[in-house]
TrEMBL record:
InterPro entries: GIY-YIG_endonuc, GIY-YIG_endonuc_sf. Residues 1-35, 51-98 are annotated as: Disordered. SMART domains: GIYc. Residues 68-153 form the GIY-YIG domain. Residues 51-62 have a biased composition (Polar residues). The lineage of its organism: Eukaryota, Metazoa, Spiralia, Gnathifera, Rotifera. Gene3D superfamilies: GIY-YIG endonuclease. Signal peptide: none annotated. This is GIY-YIG domain-containing protein.
Amino acid sequence: MAKTCADVDWPTTKDGSKNDDRFTIPQVTNEDGTRDMRYNLFEKPNFCKSEQLTTSGSNEYEATSAPHAPGVYQISTTDGPGRPTTKYTGMSGDLSTRIDQHGRGESNISEQMNEASGQGMNTRVQYSETDSRAEARGQEMFLLDQHNFDWNDRNNGGRD
């Protein structure tokens, strides 16, 4: 089980009394511009078995069974029986809706997904539900620090 924001000592509100997403969602950098390393304290999410999003040569989207809950997800490509290559890591307050947006062409990575399909690759998704958007953000930051994913263009300073 992944650690929660409380486990890594992230504040949940600005003043302790009202919700404010700027403080409940962990940021990549501190106020002084240094990289906030607390997200390294999160554990790797427990991903479900991957599900097909698109099939080689087709831009037709196959709906997933992702829950309407916060969590992190990874989209990968594969050119057949080979091992999938993770291309994108994301987080959402509603996994089902966000993954559907990617599949229906309503997102920032739809072009890459269509290009992969045109090159004969399948796209797949795996996801892990979290207790909150803040925990999903922390896990996303943890994952982005592990690798430089091809389709992520922000907060992607990982090691290869």
